[in-house]
């Protein structure tokens, strides 16, 4: 419908105007040449008019009347559709239906290239004009609009609520509540959590591993303890299968819209109450009554022994005397009770030389040990309840810490929101639960259980340290953090360095030191692993960007889980192979702990099973051709993984 200059097609009105302008310009040629104004810099004024008048000649150059031009060049005049917009005149041109003919003075100032631009842009602006026109139509159900040689499809405008759901803007209007029950390390629960986050929907997650009494409510509402279970207010939506079905059918959005105007009733699952601990049945230790008597009756004094002051101690003779007097037992029986107190870590010899003996031997209560008050899981008193099995306590701590990561860490665990963790109810419960570690018997753990227990404890302690102590600044702060942040575990203080080098590395020297972690008489040496597994280095996260990502392990799957951790670490850039330079770039961890991995080519052979096929092939080729291989160590990024 738009006229194109390049094709020589004009509407009848356009032809008339052009011929009329040509006639007037012919008369204008008689004017003095100095008085005429050129239209463009490239062509003289008369030449431009001559080009315009060329459209009035046939192929033989014979002048054709204006009417003939109109008849020959225009086949059919198609009026524009009533719904289409009216075209606008180009800049500098009066409207086409103007009654006054253009004067020579006005015509000489017209921007001639604007004619071509006008006709070219008319077709380009047509589609947008149609869209604007049709969007204002009052007929809501129009789906097609047919024009001559043109078909327009109209898409219905989305409902406001549909748009809000799509863009996550419905959140602020929902008066109801989305609740779902979960457990730690549950794949289906992770899928539900990710879906709700992607939709930008607020929800309340009730992790029954963090809030054990909520499991009874879960069973009462659903008839099963399986998770996840999703609730819209008080109505049960179902698990992951039900969620996928409702999402694919569009029913999920419809039910979501229903919650906009409906306030959450009291019958809906209640969110956990923050700041209150769940009542638990605790068994009081059988020695608790004895230790209470001793704490009240024994004369606790500072004494000079071996040329130094030993604080807050008492003698074995005094202890036996108090028990004979208040427990009405013999001295031999009192000695047996004293040994039981020592084995249960209520008291310790001041130099760790014996369990308990009558006479001039000196002991201290556990809470009076020099390092105990610096432990971050010690709140001023010892947990006197019957110690739970170490494996049970470790598993419970791991579940809570896993729930913390699922809520406050990125999906890949590379970034952790320490501030949010520190303010969370989950972390408060974790810290309270660490008091169960005071007197646990870690010596009863098997090798795999011990490995998983201390790997998990190390990773949890690092998170705790980042929250309570803060991010270290520089090497001195880091060494201080790893050496001084401690937990009271099984009657003894364990720092991060102690766990890593003393327990998991079998009492090997830390990097750049000359002495081992434990001395020959250190009681913690009994807990150290007899065989060092180099894979433990890929399971320990020290809170930096270059360290392995934080994860937690199970005793029955510890080996497979550590291999997975190693593969992930190398996939993230722990090793790079440059075949043309015959160079292998390794994480600096291999240099620090070369005694665990081996030297040079031994290290390269060790890592091959944990590499992807490409890197493994390149490294195998370098090692098999007999040529030299250069090993360089990457710089360690000490910035915090927050």
TrEMBL record:
It comes from Dillenia turbinata. Residues 294-367 form the DEP domain. It comes from the Eukaryota. Gene3D superfamilies: Glutaredoxin, Winged helix-like DNA-binding domain superfamily/Winged helix DNA-binding domain. Residues 22-31 have a biased composition (Basic and acidic residues). Residues 22-44, 78-108 are annotated as: Disordered. This is Glutaredoxin. GO terms for biological process: intracellular signal transduction. PROSITE patterns: DEP, GLUTAREDOXIN_2. Pfam families: DEP, DUF547, Glutaredoxin. InterPro entries: DEP_dom, DUF547, Glutaredoxin, Thioredoxin-like_sf, WH-like_DNA-bd_sf, WH_DNA-bd_sf.
């Amino acid at each position: 419908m738009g006229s194109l200059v390049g094709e020589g097609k004009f509407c009848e009105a356009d032809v008339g105007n052009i011929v009329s302008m040509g006639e007037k310009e012919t008369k204008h040629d008689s004017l003095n040449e100095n008085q005429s104004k050129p239209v463009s810099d490239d062509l003289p004024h008369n030449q431009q008019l001559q080009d315009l008048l060329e459209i009035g000649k046939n192929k033989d150059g014979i002048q054709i009347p204006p009417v003939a031009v109109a008849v020959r060049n225009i086949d059919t005049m198609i009026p524009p559709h009533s719904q289409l917009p009216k075209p606008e005149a180009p800049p500098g041109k009066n409207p086409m239906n103007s009654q006054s003919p253009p004067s020579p003075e006005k015509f000489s100032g017209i921007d001639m290239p604007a004619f071509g631009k006008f006709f070219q842009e008319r077709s380009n602006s047509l589609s947008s004009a149609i869209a604007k026109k049709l969007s204002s139509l009052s007929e809501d159900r129009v789906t097609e609009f047919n024009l001559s040689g043109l078909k327009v499809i109209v898409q219905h405008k989305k409902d406001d609520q549909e748009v809000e759901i799509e863009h996550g803007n419905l959140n602020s209007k929902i008066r109801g509540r989305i609740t779902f029950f979960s457990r730690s390390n549950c794949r289906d629960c992770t899928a539900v959590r990710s879906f709700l986050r992607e939709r930008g929907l607020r929800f309340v997650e009730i992790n029954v591993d963090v809030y054990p009494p909520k499991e009874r409510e879960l069973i009462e509402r659903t008839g099963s303890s399986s998770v996840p279970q999703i609730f819209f207010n008080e109505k049960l939506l179902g698990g992951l299968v039900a969620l996928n079905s409702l999402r694919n059918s569009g029913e999920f959005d419809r039910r979501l819209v229903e919650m906009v105007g409906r306030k959450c009733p009291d019958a809906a699952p209640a969110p956990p109450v923050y700041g209150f601990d769940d009542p638990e049945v605790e068994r009081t230790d059988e020695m608790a009554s004895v230790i209470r008597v001793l704490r009240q009756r024994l004369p606790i004094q500072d004494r000079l022994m071996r040329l130094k002051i030993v604080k807050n101690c008492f003698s074995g003779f005094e202890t036996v005397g108090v028990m004979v007097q208040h427990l009405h037992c013999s001295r031999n029986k009192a000695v047996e009770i004293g040994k039981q107190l020592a084995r249960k870590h209520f008291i310790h010899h001041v130099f760790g030389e014996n369990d308990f003996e009558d006479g001039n031997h000196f002991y201290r209560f556990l809470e009076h040990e020099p390092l105990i008050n610096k432990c971050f899981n010690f709140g001023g008193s010892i947990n006197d309840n019957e110690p739970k099995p170490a494996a049970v306590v470790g598993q419970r701590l791991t579940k809570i810490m896993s729930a913390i990561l699922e809520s406050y860490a990125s999906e890949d665990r590379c970034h952790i929101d320490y501030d949010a963790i520190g303010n969370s109810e989950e972390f408060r419960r974790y810290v309270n639960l660490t008091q169960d570690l005071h007197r646990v018997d870690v010596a009863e753990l098997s090798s795999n259980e011990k490995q998983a227990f201390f790997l998990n404890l190390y990773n949890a302690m690092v998170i705790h340290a980042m929250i309570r102590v803060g991010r270290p600044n520089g090497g001195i702060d880091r060494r201080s953090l790893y050496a001084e942040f401690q937990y009271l575990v099984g009657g003894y203080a364990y720092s991060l360095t102690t766990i890593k080098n003393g327990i998991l590395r079998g009492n090997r020297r830390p990097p750049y030191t000359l002495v081992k972690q434990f001395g020959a008489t250190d009681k913690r040496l009994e807990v150290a692993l007899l065989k060092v597994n180099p894979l433990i280095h890929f399971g320990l996260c020290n809170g930096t960007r270059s360290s392995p990502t934080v994860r937690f392990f199970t005793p029955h799957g510890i080996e497979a889980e550590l291999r997975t951790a190693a593969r992930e670490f190398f996939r993230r850039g722990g090793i790079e192979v440059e075949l043309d330079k015959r160079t292998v770039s390794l994480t600096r961890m291999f240099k620090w702990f070369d005694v665990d991995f081996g030297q040079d080519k031994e290290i390269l052979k060790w890592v091959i099973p944990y590499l992807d096929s490409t890197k493994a092939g390149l490294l195998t080729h370098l090692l098999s051709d007999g040529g030299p291989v250069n090993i360089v160590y990457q710089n360690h990024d000490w910035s915090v993984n927050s």
